[in-house]
Amino acid sequence: MDVERSSSDAARDTPSSSSSQADLKTVKTRRRLPGRPKSFVPAVCVLAATVLAVVVFSADSPWSFVQDAPPSDLTADQLLDGLLTAEFSKRSCRSRYEFASYHEKKKNASHKPSPYLLGKLRRHEALQKRCGPGTAPYRAAVWQLKSGKGAAATDCRYLVSISYRGLGNRMLATASAFLYAVLTDRVLLVHQYKHDVDALFCEPFPGTTWLLPSGWSFPLGHLRDYGSGSKESLGNMLKANVISVGANGNASWSDSGDRRPPFVYLHLEGGYDFHDKLFYCDEHQRLLHGAPWLLMKTDSYLVPGLLLVPSFQDEFGRMFPEKDMAFYHLGRYLFHPVNYVWRAVTSYYRANLAGAGQRVGIQIRVFRKKQTPLQHVLDQVLSCVRREKLLPEITSSSNINASDQAVLVTSLSSWYYERIREEYGGGRVAGGVHQPSHEGRQKRGDTSHDRRALSEMYLLSTCDVLVTTGFSTFGYVAQGLSGIRPWIMPSTPMWSESDTADTKVVPEPPCVRAMSVEPCFHSPSYYDCTARRDVDVGKVVPYVRHCEDVSWGIKIANQSS
To answer: 45-103 pLDDT, tens per residue?
Structure first.
C-alpha cells in the first residue's frame, strides 16, 4: 500500500487529572430474587426506563434532541460571526460556544464568513431537519433503497460519508463530504464505525442527527466493505457501459434510458483509478445529480478537487470569497468536541498554556511503524525554530534571556519533547515546555486514543505560532482550525522500515512557511475533462497550486500567496 495514502496521524493522550476526566457512572441492576413480589418487576422497569432516559438525553449525549432552552445571551464572537446557530443549549456541547474564547488573541486577524455562506448553512440545516432520519421523506428513501428500484426525482437526496484511517483523515474526509453535500443540496449522513463519531463530536445540525442509523434499518450492508471492486461504483459502471457519455458530453444510463439506479458508490480513496476520478468531470456530476443516494468513501481532503469542477466554481467563490479559508470555516462549523474531550482541552490549557504571552505549537510526526527516535528529525525541528526566530537563540546556560513563551509539543514519542525541554527549559522560555501525551505508537480504531488525539488538535489550534510536519493530516486539521499559516517541516514518508540507522540529513531549508492554512489533497485527478488529457492541475486555476510538502498534491491558496 502506498505510504502516502496509508499514513495518518496518531491518536494521542490527554492529561490524566481529575479535572479532565468525565464523571462516568455505571448503572447496576439486580435480578428479581426468588420469593420477591411480582410488583417489584414493574418497579425495576420504571427505574431502568428513567435511568435510560437520563442517559439518552443527558447533556453529553450527541443524540440529544430534547435540550434546554437555547441561550439568549450569545455574542457574535461566540457564534463565530454567525457561522454557528444559536439553537443549541450551552451545556449540551460546551465547546460549540466556548471555542472562540480560546482564540481571542487571533480575533482581530480572523476571517469572517460571507453572508452568502451563512445563508447556505441555514438552508442546509433546514434540509437536514426536513429530510433527516426519523422523517417521512427519509423513511420513503430507505424503502426505495430496500426495493432496489430507481426513484423519481425528489427534493430529499442523500450523501453517506464513509471515512476511515486516522482521525485527521476522517475529519478531512467528512468536511469534504459536507461541502459536496452543500454544493449539491444533499442531506449529509455520516457512517460511524464503533461509535467513532458520536464519542468525539457533538451534533452540528439543530433538531436532527448527522449520523446514519445503523443496523438492520439501513439496507446496504457493511459500508466499509465497499471498494474498488464494487459493481455499484461510478468507475465500474463506466467500465461496464452502464453509463455512457455521448459526443455532446452528456452522460446517461445506457441500459434503461434515464432511469436512475437506487444508489451510486463513489470510490474516492487514495488508490482510485482513472474511471473513479471521472467523478470530477461536469458531465458525470450532472448524471449524479439525479441519484437519490450517493455513498462517498474517502480518506482525503477533496475540496481542491471539487474547486476544479467548473460547475462548482461560482458557488464556491460566493461561499468563500477568501478561497483559502474553506476548511477554516467548514471545520469550525462542523466539528465540536463532546464535553468529555473539551474538559481535557480546557483543563490542560488553563494549567499549562494560559499565562504565556505567546504559545508555540510543535507537531512532530515520523512516518514509520517503529517510532525509534531520530536525531535528524530533532535537528530539523531545532533548526527550524532557530532559523525563523520562533524561539530564542540559546548562547550559553549562564546568560538566559527568558522569553514570554510556552511551548506545546505533540508527538508519539517523549524523546523529542525531552530534548526540546533540555534546550529551552530551565527558564529559557517562561511558560515552559509541555507535552500532553506520548502514546508510543499509533492505535487506530481505539476511541480513547481518538479522544486524546482530538484534544491535542484543539490544543495546537490555540497556539499563536505553529510548526507542523509535512504530509500530516493531524497537522492539517490543527492549522485549519487555528487559521494560522504554519511553518511546515518537509518529511519523507517513504522511509524504509528496515533502515534502522539514522542516516538522513536535515533538509535545507528545514521548514517553509505555508502559502495558506488549507490542507493538501494528496491524490488529485490530473485529467482535464474538457481537453480529454492529463494536465498539470497545479496550474489550471491561479488559486489551486501544488503543496509545499507533497509535490504531487494540490491545495487552495490566494492568488497573492
So the answer is: 444 444 333 333 333 333 444 456 677 789 999 999 999 999 999 999 999 999 999 98
- To 10 degrees, what angle do helices 447-461 and 167-184 make? 70
Provide Rg for the chain, Cα atoms: 25
What is the rounded CA–CA span in Å between residue 79 and residue 73? 11
Distance, C-alpha 425 to centroid of its chain = 33
Q: Give alpha helix (H) positions in 220-325.
A: 234-239, 274-277, 282-288, 303-307, 310-319
Q: Which three cell numbers stand for residue 447?
A: 476511541
Of 203, 204, 176, give the one whose Cα is nearest residue 84.
Answer: 204
SS3 419: helix
3-state helix, strand, coil in the chain (%, to 5): 35, 10, 50
Pick the CATH number of 339-514 from 3.40.50.720, 3.40.50.11350, 3.40.50.10090, 3.10.20.30: 3.40.50.11350
The Cα–Cα gap between 82 and 86 comes to: 9
Confidence of residue 155 (pLDDT cuts 50, 70, 90): confident
Question: Which pLDDT belongs to residue 104?
Answer: 79
How far, in Å, CA of 305 to CA of 469, rounded?
23
Q: By the 8 A CB rule, do 441 and 371 touch?
A: yes
CA distances (Å), origin 196, targets 8, 137, 297: 16, 27, 16
**What is the C-alpha to C-alpha distance for residues 55 and 58, in angstroms, rounded to an integer?**
5
- Give the DSSP per-residue string, 58-109: STT-TT--S-PPPPS---TTTTTTTTS-S-S-TTT-HHHHHGGGGGGGGSTT
b/e map 396-417, b = 16+ CB within 10 Å: eeeeeeebebbbbbbbbbbbbb
C-alpha cell recorded at residue 418: 525531552
Please tell me the distance from the alpha carbon of residue 371 to that of residue 180, in angstroms, as a whole number. 37
Strands 433-434 and 405-410, sheet pairing: parallel
Confidence at 491, pLDDT banded by 50, 70, 90: confident
Cα 550 to Cα 407: distance, rounded to the nearest angstrom: 27
| One-letter amino acid of 233 | S
For residue 303, give the 3-state DSSP assignment: helix
How many other C-beta atoms lie within 10 A of the C-beta of residue 506?
18
Neighbours of 119 (CB within 10 A): 13
Contacts of 232 (CB under 8 A, 6+ apart): 226, 261, 263, 264, 265, 295
The 3-state secondary structure of 468-488, one letter per residue? EECCCHHHHHHHHHHCCCCEE
Domain boundary assignment for the chain: 113-324, 339-514
Whole-angstrom CA distances from 281 to 119, 247, 254, 287 are 27, 15, 18, 10
Read off the pTM: 0.86
Q: Residue 255's closest CA among 271, 268, 237, 231?
A: 237
Kindly tell me the burial class for residue 104, based on how many C-beta atoms sit within 10 Å of its own C-beta (0-12, 13-18, 19 or more).
Answer: exposed
